[in-house]
Amino acid sequence: MPQNHLNKLGRIFISYRRGDTAGYAGRIHDRLAQAFGPSLLFMDVDSIGLGIDFVSEIQKQVSKCGVLIAIIGPNWLDVTDESANRRLDNPNDFVRIEIAAALQGGILVIPIFIDGAEIPNASRLPDNLKELAKRQGFWVRHASFHNDMRDFIRRLKKLASASEDGEQNQPTERSEHLHVADRRTRINTSKANTVRVSKSEPAIETNAKKKKFSHEYIQAGIVTFFSLHLTTERTPIKPVTNLKQRYGLTKRDWGKLADQLSDLDWMKEIAVRLSADEIKGVHTPLGLTRLIWEKMDSLHRGYDTAMWSDL
């Protein structure tokens, strides 16, 4: 029985093109099934019933997942139909619908590039897939398939939960984090005024007499979030990194990220939600940490504001 490390991220949708990477898709599916269990994987839409709107059904299946893995081979961009038209240019192309639904739904999209395939140039992608060109991917080669997949699964486990090496001080993401939604969960102070926290999440003391989220915890959570969603380079995001300037984020981008950040579990634990207007003038993880702390203090009197003295 495989150990389930993906219960925080939800199901994985595997998107692939039969004329490009069908063989690899099956092998990747099998390796992921061994690691996480087949019940957490969704790969084919062949089960769509007769007369069903396949566009709506694909979007529905994608929305149930927390991660979409886009398997991209050397011919992924240029595979054509029987009329010699590029499949990707067809709005009803299954692969295009799958990836667009994930991108538009705020679901984490991870490209896997097979045997020398490269990150697609945005200029060659349909408008609703251009965002794919910005997503950091992973390379899998035939000669090192098993080692590459072992490394990919390790990274996916690390993404899904706090590492098993005792790194319990890092906030973890759940599938809900990856969807833009207007939800608010207030702190439940029943049963001895203590919030119950998932075993895989950091143990946070929330006793009514001593509610205290350290600024290090909040700042680490913000840096982790933006590192997963933005960075495509080796230069790490630091507390003083100007995110809007480095990544050229628009006001709309910044607003979407505010929604996704607000849906993190630890943000919902402290019942703090950020709006686009609130963060429009705050461009660094340090500044966001201060903003969250101020909102947290106003909502839940008793947090130790003296902890800011060292910033």
For the sheet with most strands, the description reads: 5 strands, parallel
CATH class of the largest domain: Alpha Beta
The strand count comes to 5
Which value, in Å, is the CA radius of gyration?
21 Å
Morphology call: globular
Kindly state the mean pLDDT as a whole number?
75
Low-confidence stretches: 1-5, 162-212, 301-311
Helix content: 25-40%
CATH homolog superfamily of the largest domain: Toll/interleukin-1 receptor homology (TIR) domain
How much of the sequence lies in strands comes to 5-15%
Q: Which key terms come to mind for this protein?
A:
311 residues; 8% strand; globular; 2 domains; disordered C terminus; alpha/beta
What can you see in these coordinates?
The chain is an alpha/beta fold and 311 residues long. It folds into two domains: 11-160, 3-Layer(aba) Sandwich (Rossmann fold), CATH 3.40.50; 175-310, no CATH class. It has helices at 18-36, 54-63, 94-104, 145-160, 190-193, 215-229, 243-247, 251-262, 265-269, 276-279, 285-299, and strands at 11-15, 41-42, 65-72, 108-114, 138-140. Strands 2-1-3-4-5 form a five-stranded parallel β-sheet, with helices on both faces. Helix 3 (94-104) links the parallel strand 3 and strand 4. Helix 2 (54-63) crosses helix 3 (94-104) and helix 6 (215-229) crosses helix 11. The chain starts with 10 loop residues before the first strand and ends in a 12-residue tail after the last helix. The relative contact order is 0.10. Mean pLDDT is 75; it is low at 1-5, 162-212 and 301-311.
